[in-house]
User: What shape does this take?
Amino acid sequence: KQEVTQIPAALSVPEGENLVLNCSFTDSAIYNLQWFRQDPGKGLTSLLLIQSSQREQTSGRLNASLDKSSGRSTLYIAASQPGDSATYLCAVRPYNNNDMRFGAGTRLTVKP
Amino acid sequence: DAGVIQSPRHEVTEMGQEVTLRCKPISGHNSLFWYRQTMMRGLELLIYFNNNVPIDDSGMPEDRFSAKMPNASFSTLKIQPSEPRDSAVYFCASSPDRGPANEQFFGPGTRLTVL
Assistant: This one.
């Protein structure tokens, strides 16, 4: 059974700092990995999706990498802003079905 | 596109009552997913449909839970009878069969409180 772990559970940084969020998964046979953002009391917003054949994806200040063999993904946020404060979740999808497995998330606080 | 639409946004009910949650997926998306989010268990997939047909309902916790998708633009998740432990946020998501690796798009969720 696929297990997805996100470390750290919470992170607080000053504005302007670059930061890395980590996601690890136990079964490397994945179809894709998706990073989401969730604001308090809100739904999930898709940030980046990396297909199994890809190594990284970039969108603005965000960069997500994928190392399937080691079962790891990172989300890099450059020049963090208070508006980046939210919970960030990663989810992996296996090849044979749509049962996405989510990590517990990292709660990020960017202080002005 | 308006995105995935869910209603109601908040529901407060008493134990034993029937609860119906509704979802309208993004037009053109073939797959629809129902998730539940709690502090203890995080996000869990309950059931998903492809072309209106339930494909995997192994995540549905009990027979008290049922889901239907009568057409491509509407799905319901019903709990009957509801219990306090069903209190959670229920999300609906949809994805196309084609496109960038079947990216999932989530609705705003329904926050259910069972007293």
In short: Chain A has a mean pLDDT of 93. The CA atoms of residues 37 and 88 of chain A lie 5 Å apart. The two ends of chain A are 41 Å apart (CA to CA).
